[in-house]
Amino acid sequence: MESNPIRMCELLVGLPAVTVLGVVSRENEPLRVHVERADAVAGCPVCGVIAHVKDRRRVELVDLPSFGRPTRLVWHKRRFRCPEPTCPHGSWTERDPLIAPRRLCLSDRAGRWITEQVGRWGRSVSEVAKELGCDWHTVNDALLAYGETLIDDEGRFGVVEALGLDEVLFVREGEYRRQCYSTQIVDVERGQLLDVVPGRSGAAPTAWLQSQGEGWLANVRYATLDLSGPYRSVFNKTVPKATQVADPFHVVKLANLKLDECRRRVQNELEGHRGRKHDPLYRARLLLTKADERLSENGREKLMGLLNAGDPKGEVFATWRAKELVRGLYDHDDAAMALSFVQRLGNDLQDPDLPEEARSLGRSLLRWKHQIAAWHEAHVTNAPTEAANNLIKRVKRVAFGFRSFRNYRIRALLYAGKPNWSLLSTITPR
Ligand SMILES: [Zn+2]
To answer: 358 exposed, middle or buried (CB, 10 Å; 0-12, 13-18, 19+)?
Structure first.
């Protein structure tokens, strides 16, 4: 057991090669630990002559809380002067990356701790700032400085065989609450977020993929997408040999969307107004989008009753049937059958007696038939992309929406991009 008071204090402060000068404790203020570096002698970096200490400057750094209390490290930084009259070096201030990184006003260990708390465990910047007793920017600046280095690690991802693109809404900003989209690039096999680029057009993902190089792109065997034209062009351009796979989630979502459009239109034509609580079709809206086999006997009976009352021409029923057939696509995994099934369903839905919404669904099925059927062969889906999306939604909730794309990208990648956390203790912050 250590009982020497100075040594005890040094052990508690826990920094290598510093001398603790004193501790200041004032009510309602952080605890202040005054330190200086232990090696008192420094040589001039130009001529090597032992330097004179010119003066000292106090730098206050946010540090980890001590025993639950916010703490500051007050570093008495020495300023040196070279005594050699002919030496051009003049004066300089000592530095020590073990104590504090350049340009940031916190200790090095606080910077690394923040990166893990916010980046890995998904805590909010303001929550961590409160724990440290400092402002939001101090925490966020540290997160960017350490986090970006961790994200840019060359070994974070290697060969990718199944690539997915997916759009995500990331912020509504300004007085018009403008919707801003970003595109996430995902390894759908490993469920790893590779990167996030601004917008949902093809330009940014194309540039990102091309920057990975020909060799990397040649390994991509499957390319998954929602039913979006821009992403299809990205894949045509960058990975023309990869099999494109439409994600089942988005195919079923489109069928449900068409069903909903149909319900609203019929509702409006019949009642002359938008859905109200007692209208049969409005009451049917949740039962309609539920999978048929998940409806109880009662639920099914209720649905048919509501359709009888609110859907005299059977239009909603027809679109509901179409949706169920689309879902049926994924009940089996025979690739050859899948293509003919999609083709037939697409054609059948072109029947002029069917409502416009069902015909529109049929046209989409025909336009995407190869990508839809390819799922049965590839068995890769955007599901990991959706998982990454959910993680990002969590990060967004925590941050109450992101103002800056840079913040958003770093947070999302630290959380869902599988950085190598074992590197955190050794990286040099930006
Ligand atoms: Zn000198």
So the answer is: buried
